[in-house]
Write a structure and sequence with these properties.
heterotrimer; A alpha/beta (254); B mainly alpha (305); C mainly alpha (301); B: 305 residues; mainly alpha; globular; C: mainly alpha; 11 helices; 4 strands; 3% strand
Chain lengths: 254, 305, 301
Amino acid sequence: MALLDVTHLTQFFGGLRAVSDFNIQLEHGEIVGLIGPNGAGKTTVFNVLTGVYTPTSGTIVFDGQNIVGRKTHQIAQAGIARTFQTIRLFGKSSVIDNIKIAYHFRMSYSNTDAFLHTRKYWQGEQIVDDYAIDLLRLFHLEGHADDISGSLPYGAQRRLEIARALATKPKLLILDEPAAGMNPAEADELLEMIHWLRDKFDLTILLIEHQMRVVMGVCERIKVMDFGETICEGVPEHIRNDPRVCEAYLGKGA
Amino acid sequence: MTFLRTHRTLATVIAFVLAYVVIKLLSVLPLVDGGPLLNGYYIQLIALVGINIVMTVSLGMVNGFTGQFSIGHAGFMAVGAYTSAMITTVWLHTSTANPWTAYPVFIAAILTGGLLAAAAGYLVGAPSLRLKGDYLAIVTLSANELIRTVIRVTEVLGGPRGLGGIPKLTTLEVVFVFAIVSVVLMRNYLFSSYGRSMKAVRDSEIAAESMAINTTRQKVFVFVFSAFFAGVSGGVFAHLLQFIHPDNFSFVKSLEYLIYLYVGGSTSISGAMVGPAIFTFLPELMRGLQKWRLVPQRHRKEVSA
Amino acid sequence: MGQFLQQLINGIQLGSIYALIALGYTMVYGIVRLINFAHADIFMVGAYMGYFLAPVMAKVFGGAFIPTIIAAMLITGLLGFIMEKLAYRPLRYKSRLSALITALGVSLFLENFCALPFVFGPTFRKFPDLIVAKNIPLPGSLGLIIDNVLLLDVGVSVVLMVLLFWFVNKTLIGKQMRAVSFDKPTASLMGINIDVVISTAFIVGPALAGAGGILFGVTYGSLNSPSLGIWWGLKAFIAAVLGGIGNIPGAVLGAYIMGISEAFATSVNSNLGYGIAFAILIGILLVRPSGLLGKFMPEKV
């Protein structure tokens, strides 16, 4: 059974149809790209998947459960984690606290333990401390653990955002333009990292990206959207040669 | 790390205890002619500082650390003050009751006041914290004035005349114990996973929600316990002044707490403690200057006479 | 029935004064998204201007009311302009919270500054008799009484509101104001001078509050202290929120709802009259979070 099964997803904003009849199936362990010109409705799809918007119609089945109408945090707890197009770290918190915050819903102690700093509190804090440091080490951020996250360099902030998403232990990771603002060398590093992420954390990955070298290099399947509609999908070679894709990006007759 | 955080709590306690010892000494030792430096009036003022510290720190939990904007904190204080005052004035007929019976009743009364304030906080917070923007500000402000109106029209509570005859059970010691316990509890909460979630809500609510935090529940919980501490402060306040009036808890009073908070620094507990300390004393110190305020007028009168 | 209509008339009178203050809150909020707490104190300054200017105007022009209200509006408009320039403009691109706290600070400053003995002084002052109150019994068996002050209150606020609607809907600067309140960045890309628009809102809103202050003085005849603005301002603000803050007709609607409900509640219990506004507000906000005529704007992700 597919990990994520989206059928006939449609999203209206007032009279504007942002997404229409969007379908996608993700198998466990796949890396799938979602591309299309600006305003095609990609980020809207992400926002619907993560419960920021409730779809006008359609079903979303994730891991065997229908998640339409659930709140964002419930969907995150069910195993979908995301990053944002414009970085949204907890900018005034330290780097390590960013990770710990994402661990919060699995924290074992109660509000009462938090007020009284009981033995359970100390045990819980010990566990999350160790967990967060280990995770930061994987992303080469352990040296910055106590820095304020807003002060990190851009590339490190991107890495931290991915690390933070992983701290919720997701099954599906969705990345909204992870290579935005990166130079080719950094983008290559990102390519490698995405493959490594999938294997290391046993993930399924859905990503929006504009940099074609990243999309073509990492995705096993690609879906192209334009004006809210899916215009084409398939393996990278197929997409590269599809005239409709060219047309969507460059206009007719290009 | 762990070691340091235990110490931080300990440091708070030690600071409070030291402050108590100094104040106590100053109020007994005959340092100036005719008696100690701190007379009963100053002791009362210091007790007020303690109460204001708890009010401000608890307001800071909502406004500073969770990034919401509540401007009706005095309303919850009123709920606690009136509830506890009703209990003690009914149960303890005279203000000279035996301390062994008086204090258990007093503690039960202020805790009941806190719980009722927390319930009021839930009623106000649960619907309004779901909404973003300035709505919490508007609703808390209105709730504050609504609570005051309810008190004004309720005869049992003394209505617009106020409620008097409250036994004087709040001593300097009571205030210190109350302030230490409250500040330590709130500080503990802040240095926990829940406290981190509060700051996450403040920094980016959408991101916090995407990181599996039930932001609404976290906001409501913080708001409710903040109202609880405001309620307990109200109880302690009522038993210090022995007379409470609806106008003690108006929107203007809430603004005072906002000023204490933002003057001291809304994102640190020590800041939230400094603000009230300065601002409770400053007007009193300035009072020395007040007699000069009318000098030009008096001078004029003398000249014309 | 007679009692009912009488309270309705009183409520409309009260609502007219609220409306003049509420419009300033709503205009400023619509354009800079700031709850301008100091607006209440501008209303107070307007009322005190009446006290100080009326005798002068009476000497200079013979008649006092119209010159006084115009002068008070000019002065409060200027005060609003200066306030924005000094206090809010430096914070325009800082967090909204800093502006809000600054607004609180400005409010407290105005209140305490005006209470100084060499400014307005902290004591009670009797407002000069700009208009000699005269009861006008209405024909009919209900025994309704209105007075010329009531007619004046309602008349002046209706005239000012009509002028404001004309200003906002028909003039270029008014159209620019609406554009800015709709979408500030886009408006500025379209060549609208944001500074001018914001300044205009901070002149027009306070000028209306100044007129409200004069009407308040004429109607109630006494200025208790420079903190008199707080409660009037608070209730006018509540009225603006009730109607949908940022929405001009909403502010007027909210103000009349407030005035009328307050008049009725006061006839039951004088303390209730004060609180009823807040109960209505909470009730309405729970059902319509954006107020009666306000539009709900979803957050962009």
